[in-house]
Amino acid sequence: MKKDLSAPSVIPSRRAFLKGAGALTGSAALLATMNDGARAAGDPIPVGQAAPLTDFAAADGVEFKNGLEMACEEINALGGILGRPLEPHFEDTKQMGDATNVQAVTRLIDRHGVHAVINGYNIGSGAAIQDVIADSGIVYVHYDTTIGHNNLIKSDPKRYYGSFQGDPAEYWYGPGFLKFLQGLEERGEYKRGNDKMAVILSAGVYAANIANAIKEQAASYGWQISLFETVNVPISEWGPTLAKLREDPPAVIAITHFLPADLAQFMLQFMPNPTQSLVYMQYGPSIPAFREIAKEAANGVLYATLVGALQDEIGNDFEARYKKRFGENAGHNSGAQPYDGCHVWATAAALAGGSGEPGDDDQNRKVADRMRSMIWRGVTGTTRFDPEVQSAYTYPTQTKDPSLGMPHQFLQIQDYTKGAGLIAPPPYDTASFVMPPWIKV
Fold first, then answer.
1. Could you tell me which Gene3D superfamilies the record lists for this protein (predicted)?
2. How many alpha carbons fall within 13 Å on the CB side of residue 129?
């Protein structure tokens, strides 16, 4: 697809959104402090979100809603998109799944005429909503973190021009984890006791894709997969799996299942007779419930995220504003996703001369072109889309330049009464790796 590099048809005023285009490489936090009274007052631009506001993922769904609302408020305070304020609308995806997700997005388009859908994640194939978006001719930004998105975009880039994944695909958790371990060893922070790695997964696509990525590349990093086991979830009794681990102790245990209560139970049952293994867990330890259940047993656990608020000046400022707005217990890491996604889309729309309503395919193609060419430094790091798959690049696995990729953050719980320390990658790290208390050096 040839990009339209012509100038926007509408030139923003000095007091309109972004004051020209100077904030393209600026931070969302900076934008929030630039209000000089230029509040938007034109016709509202409807923006939609389909999120799990009820049922088992509601804790994240509410934060996705908060993140989009906060982004709209701050952008409107700056003048909106060329003087037009953003007006958010929400539909509940409940238990998620393709059918429910598609119904929610369809309601946003049919009832509210949204110009864009800015989601967090929805469990499903990661490739169903895109057809609704393509048929309507609007723009879609989501954080499903799935390789299914990438494969779909590559299959027909002209049809799916308006669908963007704001973070890297879950596949990158696999090679990123192996590269992280390699870094620990090269810096002398960790020495493996043997070459064995156990991988434990659940049956879902997300957990399986990450586990398979680790399995496929482990040998190239000198690891032997000694156990590759799928567990049925939810799971509260880890005895059979722990028996296998204790019979043939690995140097590393990687669990790609992600429910926090299940993972907390693993640690509670692991600690009375631990193996001399690093323990890495997917996503669950980032949720406060994990630490609340596991307590001291959580100390030493490693986990990672491909997208989350950084613990730097920009991320900390966002966290403070977010918690002031939504409460001290609000989950700013989840809210950061649609927050950044909305800023990326709104910036691109301003540069393109405005957003397009459903059916305005020509204008939204211009917006999508701007998104593909942008580099946005937000609270989650750098968003830069791989033009072939319209998914964010990851640093340091895909690119070695931190200004050109979203950081694959590795964190360690070192005191369960506090938040985890960000131990990699540099230059974003704010803490150092410590040997887990159950490993005897």
1. 3.40.50.2300
2. 40
DSSP string of 310-369, one letter each residue: -SSHHHHHHHHHHHHHH-TT--HHHHHHHHHHHHHHHHHHHHTTS---TT-HHHHHHHHH
Residues 113-143: b if buried by 16+ CB within 10 A, e if exposed? bbbbbbbbbbbbbbbbbbebbbebbbbbbbb
Segment (H or E) for 392: strand 391-392
Q: How does strand 406-407 pair with strand 394-395? A: parallel
- By DSSP bridging, strand 385-386 and strand 163-165 are unpaired
Instruction: Look up the pTM and report it.
Output: 0.88
3-state secondary structure of 308: coil
* Strand partners for 224: 196
Handedness of CA 72, 74, 75, 80 (dihedral sign): positive
Q: Is the dihedral of CA 340, 341, 346, 351 positive or negative?
A: positive
138: three-class secondary structure by DSSP: coil
Whole-number Å distance between alpha carbons of 138 and 157? 15
| CA gap 345, 385 in Å, rounded | 12
**Per-10-residue mean pLDDT for the chain, 441 residues long?**
35 36 37 51 95 92 97 97 97 96 98 98 91 98 96 97 98 97 96 97 93 98 98 95 98 95 97 98 90 97 96 96 95 95 98 98 98 97 98 97 97 95 96 97 79
Residue partners of 244: CB distance under 8 A and separation at least 6:
198, 227, 229
Work out whether the CA dihedral 86, 87, 93, 98 comes out positive or negative: negative
Structure tokens that stand for 119 in this block = 């989601």
Q: Nearest to residue 271, comparing CAs of 308, 238, 224, 320?
A: 238
Residues of the chain by 3-state class (helix, strand, coil), percent to 5? 40, 15, 45
DSSP state of 78: T
